[in-house]
Design a protein that fits this description.
The protein contains 9 helices and 9 strands. A 5-stranded parallel beta sheet has the order 6-7-8-3-9, sandwiched between helices. Helix 3 packs across helix 4. Helices cover 35% and strands 24% of the residues. It has one domain: P-loop containing nucleotide triphosphate hydrolases (Rossmann fold), CATH 3.40.50.300.
Length: 225
């Protein structure tokens, strides 16, 4: 059984003028357990909306999104939050770290909807990403690359079956981008988590054996663009 199975996914937004703007029209998509797949996603192809619908952050208008056998679209908001915490890790392009909290606290808070706070596991993850000596630092005291490492640790905090990554190297210089990508892939492999990464950076895409064009998967991409 695929870890992720999508059928007939559609999402439409309303423009300020009140016109319907199709953003997603994905007839079919699957991702097998423990696989790593990159989606080439240029501007206007609906990449962030696609990942947010998979994560249950956005509600699809139509279609089915099944994660590990459970249909996300059939769940209420509370149940989606629980499923996301149990099955998914999300690495955002802008990191979305809480500025008033330490590295350790950011990772622990990522466990809130999952199995619960586990400070020891949080510290282990931060040590794994090379921040064992920065546990009590706040995001503003870290470099951009170090903040990305905290985001990676947080995404893996609940031992997810799948990690979603939205342009995870977009705010990094080439050296930090390579290091961050290697780290994401290594930790996903170590934790037997599938990885679905979206990027427009060819240097990132070249690192993956499986690369798909989101514009070909998403039939609404041409309309949106």
């Amino acid at each position: 059984m695929p870890l992720l199975e999508i059928q007939g996914l559609k999402k439409t937004y309303r423009t300020p003028e009140g016109e319907a703007q199709p953003v997603l029209d994905v007839p079919e998509f699957t991702l097998e357990p423990r696989t790593q797949c990159a989606l080439r996603g240029a501007s206007g192809t609906g990449k962030t909306t696609f990942l947010n619908c998979i994560a249950g952050i956005l509600s699809a208008d139509n279609g089915m999104i099944r994660i590990d056998g459970r249909d996300v679209t059939a769940l209420d908001e509370s149940a989606r939050d629980t499923l996301r915490a149990q099955k998914l890790g999300y690495i955002f392009q802008t990191f979305n770290l809480l500025q008033g909290y330490t590295c350790e606290e950011n990772v622990i808070l990522g466990m809130s909807f999952g199995p619960g706070a586990d400070a020891e596991h949080a510290r282990e993850l931060l040590e794994r990403v090379g921040l064992g000596d920065r546990l009590r630092y706040r995001p503003g005291q870290l470099s951009v690359g170090q903040q990305q490492r905290v985001a990676v640790a947080r995404a893996l905090a609940n031992r997810p079956a799948m990690v979603l990554a939205d342009e995870p190297t977009g705010n990094l210089d080439p050296r930090n981008a390579r290091e961050a990508l290697d780290l994401i892939r290594e930790i996903c492999e170590e934790n037997e988590a599938a990885l679905l990464l979206v990027s427009h950076d060819q240097a990132v895409l070249d690192q993956f054996d499986t690369v798909l064009d989101l514009a070909e998967i998403n039939q609404a991409a041409e309309v949106q663009a």
